[in-house]
Amino acid sequence: GKRSVFSIVIVMIWAAYSYVESELMTNAFFVSRLDDTLQGDSSGRDWIYSMTISKWSDMNLFQQIFGGGGYYSAVLLNIKGHNDWIELLLDCGLIGVSAYIYFYVASIKSLKKTTKSNYKSMFISSIAILLMKSFFSMGYESIELWFGIWMGFALYKTHEDRIPKKGKAFNNKQIAIVK
After folding, report:
1. How far apart are CA 156 and CA 85, in angstroms?
2. Is the pTM of this model over 0.70?
């Protein structure tokens, strides 16, 4: 339950800290990028963010609501947004951003309906990874196959007890016959 979620959060924080500490000790590029960022050089992300707001406010109402279409952010900015939220705002408008928010809200709500803590932790960690990635790179656009399988398996296992065994769904005997 809550104890296992807390334990996973602690392990994730420790793993992130250990990774950053390791990178600080061994990766000169990482250290230089960190120094640049602390001195105000954010690889142009501040420009991208301000241009996104400017370009979005210049769009007509229809485009603000529904977006400009696939890769519209790259057309407007001449560069990818490096952030899911920026990509969605320009490509899919407020509808796309709302749908992405709903994805995370629905994922969290679905976890309240399960008691399988080991798979629940697996699903929580996959949602957390995807959410963190969404702020720095194209998370939804570049989900690796293994990650999608892992996330889908965790979601299935957390809701396995809610899947009907008789009626419209296959039961174990029907699956054995199909094999």
Report:
1. 27
2. no
